[in-house]
Amino acid sequence: MIRAIGAGVGRTGTRSLQKALxxxxxxKCYHMFEVGKKPDDITFxxxxxxxxxxxxxxxxxxxxxxxxxxxxxxxxxxxANFPNALxxxxxxxxxxxxxxxxxxxxxVLRQAETSAWKEMVFEVLRSRFTANITxxxxxxxxxxxxxxxxxxxxxxxxxxxxxxxxxxxxxxKSLNVPIPNIxxxxxxxxxxxxxxxxxxxx
Length: 202
Description:
The protein is an alpha/beta fold. The chain has one domain: P-loop containing nucleotide triphosphate hydrolases (Rossmann fold), CATH 3.40.50. The protein has eleven helices and five strands. The chain has helices spanning 14-25, 32-35, 39-49, 56-59, 75-81, 94-103, 105-111, 116-128, 136-153, 168-175, 190-197, and strands at 4-6, 29-30, 65-66, 86-90, 159-162.
């Protein structure tokens, strides 16, 4: 059962948020890194991007939360299926986000060989963001539109706006769980991302 949904796009602390939610909810948190391990999931998300209406409860039956792309792209549908789940909008300054995304996520997409994974990602980008990942102004405009849409369409009582520097406290308060007595997991900076992703053949 999904208890938290990350509506923030990649490069806004979603990997750190994944690990934090797994610790707090004592369950698995879905993230783009999971998709590459599961060929059936690649097909699933491509079909959703093309308009198929899936059984979200069945797909997420083994997961306690979902963050990052592609789940964040479909936060309205997922949140409607799990009406009691917290919506976490992880944020970052748009210029900083672009700098990070263009040197990590978008760089991988530009350089990766054609594959089912790459086709799926671009299908999702075309349907919910923009596939023009070399255009800074266009990407930032879509980034800002995405965030404004979340703010305008989620009940404030259900929404948590979160920065990675905020750490545990606001997440724990929103989920009504104790604050762990451990350091918040700040993971997947640009250098770590590049080392991980460019060592793989997607």
